[in-house]
Design brief:
21% strand; 6-stranded mixed beta sheet; single chain; Purple Acid Phosphatase, chain A, domain 2; 29% helix; 387 residues; 17 strands; globular; alpha/beta
Length: 387
């Protein structure tokens, strides 16, 4: 059985306050064309359909039109969707009963994670377990000592979810887990919402027992294990993501051999407008043709001049219409030097780590409150325990 795996669409996302609606519309069209290229049974969207929990009207319309076209062109394809940490599960799953009648399944109820969605095609059957992003308090602790305590960390909540799900995995049928989480050793970029501490990282071993695990949350395509993959986001949403190829994953599961490793083929997806970072001196950028190939791209420009340039953004935008941000290396170096000097003056080797943190924090920010101080000490102790 062939599946198409994507995640982290982030519909409604802006970049430096510029709408990406046109690029996202083109990206969704590309997904539809990929669906038409082979005999796919299901489309998986592993979380973060929208960029905000209260999605804009235009982004909701964009996704609605996408689902409508998918079902009109490929009426037999099932669509399996989970909410990510950017989504509102309640809003995303609006009219889910009606959508299920059209084989569009949206996870909206934690109590149903143990009930797989069974999909059949040409005498082949696969069971899908949909695990939405787990918000704090999704489960109560099972420990006798704190049985009324709400679970708060991703690690303990995912462990509890797996404890509930695994007894329901069939020994005769391949099973797929769809989840939105951060595994240990996963590679991040600047656009994912970061969690603090190891308690938010998931050991891939916890997820064992499934034929394939389709993950979302991390924006770079990556293989965690032979059967565990992040598809990555289909578009670059930050300049540090732009240097990496973006993919949709074509996954083939052997329904006759439960021990077989799934075949995963990354299919490149090209943006309708690229993101690029270019570096050079102001004169070369403005008055030569060295950088003309980037004129249609979303751009971050880093100026290498030794002196600061007045109003470079307004001037360079006349040539580079889609320029989004300018960084001046001379200015950055001066600021970094000033900060480093201030920090060196604020840190005293004879002081405790707590006092040094307060000095450091007061140097770069306002006065540190008690909650921030206690949080730092907790994190510091956790780091010490891991080294």
């Amino acid at each position: 059985m062939k599946l198409l795996h994507t995640a982290d669409l982030h519909l409604g996302k802006t970049l430096h306050e510029v709408s990406l609606e046109e690029q996202q519309s083109d990206m969704l069209k590309s997904i539809i064309e990929i669906l038409s290229s082979d005999d796919y049974t299901a489309l998986i969207i592993a979380g973060d359909v929208y960029d905000r929990s209260v999605a804009s009207a235009t982004s909701v319309a964009l996704f609605s039109n996408f689902l409508t076209e998918v079902k009109q062109r490929f009426p037999t394809i099932s669509v399996l969707i989970i909410p990510g940490n950017h989504d509102s599960a309640l809003r995303l799953s609006y009219a889910h009963e009606l959508l299920e009648s059209m084989s569009i399944y949206i996870a909206n109820d934690i109590s149903k994670i143990t009930t797989p969605i069974s999909i059949s095609h040409n005498d082949e059957n696969v069971e899908f377990f949909l695990l939405p992003f787990l918000q704090t308090g999704a489960f109560f602790s099972k420990s006798e000592s704190d049985e009324n305590r709400l679970m708060t960390t991703q690690k303990e909540m995912v462990e509890e979810a797996m404890r509930q799900i695994k007894p329901h995995i069939s020994k005769k049928t391949p099973s797929v887990l769809i989840a939105h989480l951060f595994t240990i050793n996963g590679i991040t970029s600047s656009t994912e919402r970061q969690f603090i501490g190891s308690a938010e990282l998931i050991d891939p071993e916890i997820l064992s027992g499934f034929s394939y695990i389709a993950l979302g949350h991390l924006h770079r395509f990556q293989k965690i294990r032979n059967n565990i993959y992040y598809s990555g986001s289909p578009l670059a949403y930050a300049f540090d993501e732009a240097k990496y190829e973006k993919y949709i994953l074509s996954v083939e599961i052997d329904c006759k051999d439960l021990t077989a490793i799934p075949t995963v083929k990354p299919i490149p997806i090209k943006p309708s407008r690229k993101l690029n970072t270019i570096e050079g001196k102001f004169h070369d950028l403005l008055d030569t043709d060295k950088f003309n190939e980037y004129k249609d791209d979303f751009l971050e420009i880093i100026l290498k001049d030794n002196i600061s340039i007045q109003s470079p953004m307004q001037i360079l935008q006349k040539k580079f219409t889609h320029l989004l941000t300018v960084k001046q290396e001379a200015f950055i170096k001066q600021v970094d030097s000033d900060i480093e000097s201030d920090l060196q003056n604020s840190i005293n080797s004879s002081q405790s780590i707590e006092d040094n943190f307060i000095s450091f924090s007061n140097t770069i920010n306002e006065e540190t409150d008690e909650d921030e101080k206690h949080l730092f000490i907790d994190i510091y102790k956790e780091l010490l325990s891991e080294t």
